[in-house]
Amino acid sequence: MTLPRWTPAQKRRRDLLDAALRYAGLLLVTLLTIGPFLWLLSTSLKSGSENLFAYPPSLLPAEPTLSNYARVFEGQPMLRYLANSLIVAVLAVSSNLIFASLAAYPLARMRFRGRRWVFGVLLASMMIPFQLLMIPVYELAIALGLQNSYLGLVVPHACTAFGIFFMRQAFSTIPAALEEAAIMEGVSRLRIWWHVLLPLSKPSLATLAVFSFIAVWGDFLWPLILIDDPQLYTLPLGVNRLASAFSMDWRLVAAGAVFSLIPILIVFGFSQRFFIEGALKGAVKG
Amino acid sequence: MRLSHPLLPYLFLIPACAILGLFVLYPAGKAIWLSFTDFNLITSSHFVGWDNYVRLWADPFFWGALRNTLLYLLVAVPMLVILPIFLALLVNKALPGIRLFRALIYLPVVTSLVISGLVWKWVYEERGILNHFLLATGLTDNPVAFLTDPANALFSVMAVTIWAGMGYYMVIYLAGLQAIPRHLYEAAEVEGVSRWQQTLHITLPMLKPSVAVVTVMSSIAAMKVFEEVYVMTRGGPLDSSKTLVFYLYESAFVEFEMGYAAAIGVVLFAVTLILSLVNLRLLKQEG
User: Residue B47: helix, strand or coil by DSSP?
Assistant: First the structure.
């Protein structure tokens, strides 16, 4: 279909209208995505005397107070939960980065017998849902004495087939000449991996780190079945416990939930570019 | 490449293979084996043949959970395929502040589902903010019992799954949009083709591969819904929001019928395996 061509003035008007409509749409959508969180924040700051179910609801607390946070900290070891989450996340993310990129090296750059076979098994293991594995892994964790331990929490995240594929993709884009030169110099493969491949794959490592961090930080099902000692609760378990302990005194639940959101907001704030990249690479190149 | 010891590649692979072998492959085989036993962690287990599967076949709770999971596939998946296209079209423009908007739309994706579930439980309250909004705008005359009415619970939980996941698929579509050759639009522009027609005749057809990928990925995700259910409804009321994974969890870690739960896991695996194979096909086609 051929319409009359646009004049510059028409074009400018059209662009302005387009931008205005977009901003309106964007505001509406973001209100939907962050609105519940803002409502949570507002609730967490409301004082005990304020009716949470006031009609109409008050979006801003009448007398903002941090007392709900103080009470949550008195009643629950929130810092302990935070420390547990951090320890597990650091262990899981670093071990996934190391083991996945170690395995990715030969898969990306070496020829060896059984390569296709290794590939096939890795691919297969990516398709197995954790929910199928959790009963035997639970049994195994108990047999290995990993119940109520950091190591037990880390284990399902310690090395992922996705991570191996992801790092292989990154390594295979690095020019072979760099590596050949180093081999001529007699540098060992392990040193090449550490001094050549890893530094050149920093953006991919960062993306994988961010992705594994989200997975382990938000994990609920595995800690729920593995951990029964509250001293080892991670934040999701802690907040869940909060919800039952304070039997829905929403001010306190909200304060705990807001507290548990802060670390992920910080990580997200600093690294959103890696999230977006990661989602792209993860989806398109898998 | 020459000049390296023939065993070297395997040394690099050993740690990863050991971990995956011990915590993925061995348990996968074990899970299938357990589904043929009456394993319960307490008494010694016996081989029971197909008993667990026969029992599944006759178990109304299993069929209810399967039905709810299939409803997820029928309702939540199309929403997760279509809504993010609009979001991606909305944010696919270099406007001031667009990166912030993208981040804010993505935010629910990075939030632990337990927290999201709790937040929404609060939003869904009978005298909560959502009901207030619905009453104020006259959309309903009486407060909606989002989580306490068996007719609503599953769909209310689904809405949270959609809310929590759409940012992720938006980003996948965004990648698809940015891969469309610019010259197609330039040519259309010269011809005076309207933006709407460009979207209809260039953008959407070129987005087909992304649609396929998102369909499969969101289907696999929908098969595994658990946290939202656990936090908001515990499968209730009257099992109306019990999903397959929730039933698996309940059978294994509340009822301690782990052999039976393993059989549920095998069913789950069979369905996700089919979906994953389709996904793989699609990714290969895409190059």
Answer: strand
